[in-house]
Model the fold of this input.
Amino acid sequence: MAILEVKNIKKSFGKVKVLKGIDFSLERGEVLAIIGSSGSGKTTLLRCLNFLERADEGTISVGGQVIFNGADAKTENEAVTRRKRLHFGLVFQSFNLFPQYTVLKNITMASELLIKGEAKDCREEYEYNRKLREKAYKKELKATRKADRAALTERHRELEAKEQAAYEAHMSAINANMKAKLAEVKPHALDILAQVGLSDKADAYPCQLSGGQQQRVAIARAWALHPEILCFDEPTSALDPELTGEVLRVIRNLKGSDRTMIVVTHEMEFARNVADKIIFMADGVIEEMGPPEQVFDDPQSEKTRAFLHSSLELTGKAD
Amino acid sequence: MDSIFWTVILSLFEGFATTLKLFALTLIFALPLGLVICFGSMSKIGFNLRLGGVRRRICPISALIKTFVWIIRGTPLMLQLIVIYYGPGLMFEWDLLPRFTAVLLAFVINYACYFSEIYRGGIESIPRGQYEAGQVLGMTKSQIFFRVVLMQVVKRIVPPMSNEIITLVKDTSLSRIIAVYEIIFMAQSFIKSAGLIWPLFSTAIFYLVFCGLLTILFGAIERKLSYYKV
Ligand SMILES: Nc1ncnc2c1ncn2[C@@H]1O[C@H](COP(=O)(O)OP(=O)(O)OP(=O)(O)O)[C@@H](O)[C@H]1O
Ligand SMILES: [Mg+2]
Done:
């Protein structure tokens, strides 16, 4: 089953239609590269996936479960949205490290907060769902004939008792695990830091690092939460050319068994060598999609051909 | 030394104590009040209105507070002092406030408005990317504010705050206008009573020393925060 399934995502800003119906799916472990000219909506798509923007229409499913549906009401419990957001990670073009914290703290902070907040979130979510059930029950009660109401009330009470028992069991499990989990955070972060080649920078502050090193820390920070799908928005565009290599290498090394990634990039060479699948976006639609050999060597669409031609010219590789 | 010298020095210190009291109390009340005003002026509470086909958001709280801040920042503090001291009496025939209370009130309101603009500038200068980075890491709104944004705001507002606070030291002398016995008032009284002008000149030393100490303090704070850049 596809790990990610995106269906008919549409997004407008005012009257400007930025995404006009995006459909694609990804298997676990696949790397998708999204290319396309400036303004075609690549960033907006990643932002919709990460719930930084709310798509107007469409659905997003992760592991077969619909986590976003544009048709649903806009109000949602904040803790629920945050939980859903964690299916995805996002590495920004401009790194956005937290300047006042060390590299290590940048990586560990979110995990620690999540572990500590788990009990609170669990309680909030339970309360939120309980209120929803209560509302639905009252509505149903009104619509039911008097004679059947007792049975309905009984059923409701049973359900609530079951939900509460499940909640309490869940809570005690969370509390029991908390210490052990917290103790894991730091070694885990150091491990990831080693993977991006920055073991010696754990205690440095972001302002003491080069752009390439900062972006590698940002990747480590996003990766530390183990999102199912890690998104990169032009991770090397803010870097000097001589620093892009180290960042691209790190991303390439992350590619592995179950690491699903979406990379928006202008680095065609990287897209061709690392991606399993290429999407070329133009004017808010997917103009062309396929394996790299097909999209790069045998593009079907005229727009793709024109785009590839001009971008190859830019990097001086046209013959 | 003659005894008039010591009399002068003593009363200068007495006046300076009042100056310091006004300074400290103004800070104690205006710093938090400024934050409240700042949040008020940034509040998005309101409603949408359709005016000639254009949808506009009307935020009454923010508009009201911004107007108030505009009035306070757009008129001289000296005038505000006079209005607060004499105004209620003239308009409603209320009893006059005690002089010191009236001055403190005027200073707190005035400085809270200035501080609120400094806070607002600081908060709005934090790039959106910092909030978004927190969001995609699953942090809550309050975690983002207190753990990500706040320290960056603090770092940004220390220089403008130190400026404003040093201005406050000298602005306290305005309270002389309604005869609060601060240091300038005390020094001036020797011109009439003893024909001495040097006490007035020597008040400068008090201000200089105190502002010097504040400068050193703020320098130390800035150095303490210099381990990161925002
Ligand atoms: N918050 C917003 N409000 C209004 N318009 C927006 C907003 N965000 C994006 N847009 C518009 O949406 C369009 C697509 O923007 P987007 O950033 O997704 O493009 P992109 O493909 O990432 O481009 P680039 O390669 O330059 O990063 C642009 O025309 C942009 O002006
Ligand atoms: Mg973009």
